[in-house]
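Researcher: We plan to redesign the surface later, but first we want a full-length starting point. Tokens attached.
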């Protein structure tokens, strides 16, 4: 966003005050003249649904496209579905090709076709080129608005060619060098163009050892390349190395933010695009699914406890101490799970270092398990004056922490191999493992020693 949350809050407050007082002319002026599109989008996302609809209707049609591209997918889709093909076409006029493609992907196929038919031939061809690739690949991320040059012309000719343009595409740090058949050859950095002898040819100063991205590369790998090599833009090519377009840093920042949102929300079983202020029924429906899954795993843990009901009846202290065993395992496992999922996202984990990682987590589990087992055992002995109880809970904590860290390390790898999102399913499965093993170890040992 162009402004941070602290800057936007006073504006939101003034907007709400104007709406409450019925000063809709003032509200309309603020939305259409006083604020950048990014801040208007933030205001819409920060407003309850009823007031949000009212604000949206006040935005001038020619500005709606700029606002739409900065909204979350959830709210973006909500507004787009209410627009006909003509309204979408007017809203997207002047937007970059990749942004238009992103918006069209939120629409029903029939409306998308109507919008494409209404476009001029060049824009339609460019949008269709982007739409032909999945949204989460380099092809779906790229922009076809590029400036290409031939290798056999002089830099003076290139400069005269650029002066014929009213402006250059955003984030243009280099020109793309292609053959007459659009086969990608290399790049000519703008900095080189400005300082080199204008009489030499492009071929003499162009860079052929540059980062080139295949159209089918996942967007997460694209983001990693940009981060690793500090790229501002990069060319996108097909399997035959024909130039298709380019990816710019602003699109990559969106990918990084979306991946971060995905990881954060998935840990709670939620959609990263969920509207913070979505209606009650929609919010309840989305959360009910994972609450139901969690309930099933809770019943499994309760069933384990039920097996040892006779032991718990005899030694009431077990019921008091049970949550400690499960909680310690849950925290230890979550720490490992988070580190491993992050490592996988950054590309740090591979088959070559997995054995070392598992060995490290095993040692960490033994060390922390032993340390905190002594602490908890000591507290239990002092609390209930029972040495046997102290040994039982200490041993159970060691067992559960070792299992927890190993589960935290292996579950993401197994889920990824099964093509299941580790961030989405990992925490639920880990909680089940630590609860079941913790209760089984604690109550099982208590049964052996007390019955």
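Model: Full-length starting sequence:
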């Amino acid at each position: 966003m162009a402004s941070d949350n602290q800057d936007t809050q006073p504006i939101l407050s003034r907007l709400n005050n104007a709406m409450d007082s019925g000063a809709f002319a003032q509200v309309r002026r603020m939305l259409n003249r006083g604020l950048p599109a990014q801040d208007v989008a933030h205001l819409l996302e920060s407003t309850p649904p009823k007031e949000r609809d009212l604000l949206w209707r006040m935005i001038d049609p020619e500005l709606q496209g700029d606002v739409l591209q900065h909204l979350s997918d959830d709210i973006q889709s909500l507004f787009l579905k209410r627009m006909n093909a003509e309204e979408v076409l007017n809203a997207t006029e002047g937007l970059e090709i990749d942004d238009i493609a992103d918006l069209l992907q939120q629409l029903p196929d029939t409306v998308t076709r109507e919008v494409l038919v209404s476009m001029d031939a060049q824009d339609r061809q460019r949008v269709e080129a982007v739409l032909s690739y999945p949204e989460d690949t380099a092809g779906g991320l790229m922009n076809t608005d590029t400036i290409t040059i031939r290798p056999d012309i002089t830099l003076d000719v290139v400069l005269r060619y650029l002066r014929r343009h009213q402006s250059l595409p955003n984030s243009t740090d280099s020109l793309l060098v292609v053959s007459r058949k659009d086969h990608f050859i290399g790049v000519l950095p703008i900095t080189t163009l400005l300082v080199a002898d204008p009489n030499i040819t492009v071929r003499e100063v162009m860079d052929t050892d540059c980062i080139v991205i295949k159209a089918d590369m996942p967007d997460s790998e694209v983001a990693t390349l940009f981060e690793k090599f500090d790229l501002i833009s990069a060319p996108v090519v097909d399997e035959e190395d024909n130039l298709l377009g380019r990816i710019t840093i602003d699109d990559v920042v969106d990918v990084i933010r979306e991946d971060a949102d995905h990881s954060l929300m998935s840990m709670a079983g939620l959609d990263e695009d969920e509207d913070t202020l979505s209606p009650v029924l929609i919010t309840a429906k989305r959360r009910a699914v994972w609450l139901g899954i969690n309930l099933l795993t809770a019943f499994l843990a309760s069933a384990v406890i039920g097996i040892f009901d006779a032991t718990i009846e005899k030694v009431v202290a077990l019921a008091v101490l049970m949550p400690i065993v499960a909680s310690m395992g849950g925290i230890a496992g979550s720490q490992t799970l988070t580190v491993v999922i992050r490592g996988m996202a950054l590309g740090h984990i591979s088959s070559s270092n997995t054995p070392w990682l598992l060995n490290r987590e095993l040692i960490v589990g033994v060390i922390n398990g032993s340390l905190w087992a002594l602490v908890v055992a000591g507290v239990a002995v002092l609390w209930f004056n029972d040495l046997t109880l102290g040994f039982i809970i200490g041993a159970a904590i060691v067992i559960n922490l070792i299992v927890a860290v190993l589960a935290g390390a292996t579950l993401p790898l197994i889920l990824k191999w099964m093509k299941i999102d580790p961030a989405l399913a990992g925490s639920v499965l880990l909680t089940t493992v630590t609860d079941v093993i913790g209760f089984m170890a604690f109550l099982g040992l208590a049964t052996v020693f007390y019955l």
